[in-house]
Specification:
The protein has 247 residues and is α/β, with parallel strands linked by helices. The chain is 43% helix and 17% strand.
């Protein structure tokens, strides 16, 4: 018996990186996993990786409310509600203050903040009592890395959401927490700069453990927050950062 045997889970941004690693782990723990993302080809490949009998893919963009409605209609159709929601989908890019445009601001806030909010709000009728909601945060909330101001602000909003929603949903025994990764070796990280290998080496020198994290290590933290092993934890932020913001 896995930690989540017979449960139903949803991972947004589930076709790669932390989202895919988490979906694989959720399925391994016995859950049926719904995944969503914007690229159908990548979603289909993710289902193959997770296991077709354990995963359902629904293509869509979390910043599009009609896409969210289609996603939740698919979850509703399974008839078992939702026990775990990992609101993982987000985007990032480096833009210094003097170069920030309306488009940059609107895109990041539209996906990372607006998309996360409505991902959770529209899940409410499907969330079973005692469910676990996990939001994907970032260590950038705690620091002032140059050119990352808008992204960090979106993740600060995410952290605030977790606290408020944990309070609002406590009557249904729904726990809401944030998992807070440091630099993790994912395709998204590599896409941030034109020289990803140099960038990753630089990041690794800042981490006390001397390396980048792996998506599977964040997935393990999500499983902990999703399962009964964290039954007395809500409104919290679990750092998976190799000590980056701790030491």
């Amino acid at each position: 018996m896995g930690l989540l045997e017979g449960k139903t889970a949803l991972v947004t941004g589930g076709s790669a990186g932390i989202g895919l690693a988490t979906a694989v782990r959720l399925a391994a723990e016995g859950a049926h996993v719904f995944i969503t993302g914007r690229r159908k080809t990548e979603l289909d490949a993710a289902v193959e990786t997770i296991g077709a009998s354990s995963a359902t893919a629904v293509a869509g963009d979390i910043s599009n409310l009609a896409d969210l409605d289609r996603l939740y209609e698919a979850v509703r159709g399974r008839g078992q509600g939702l026990d775990v929601l990992f609101a993982n989908a987000s985007i990032a890019s480096f833009v210094p203050l003097e170069e920030i445009t309306e488009e940059h601001f609107d895109t990041l806030f539209g996906i990372n903040v607006r998309g996360t909010l409505f991902t959770v709000q529209k899940a409410l009728p499907l969330l079973n009592d005692g469910a676990s909601v996990i939001l994907n945060g970032s260590t950038n909330v705690d620091v002032g890395d140059a050119a990352f101001g808008v992204y960090a602000a979106t993740k600060a909003a995410t952290r605030s959401f977790a606290r408020t929603w944990a309070n609002e949903l406590k009557g249904r025994r729904i726990r809401v927490n944030t998992v807070t990764p440091g630099p993790i070796e994912t395709p998204a990280l590599e896409g941030l700069t034109p020289d990803p290998e140099q960038f990753k080496r630089l990041l690794a020198t800042r981490v006390p453990m001397g390396r980048l994290g792996r998506p599977e290590e964040v997935a393990a933290a999500v499983i902990f927050l999703a399962s009964g092993q964290s039954s007395f934890i809500t409104g919290s932020s679990l750092y998976v950062d190799g000590g980056l913001n701790q030491i």
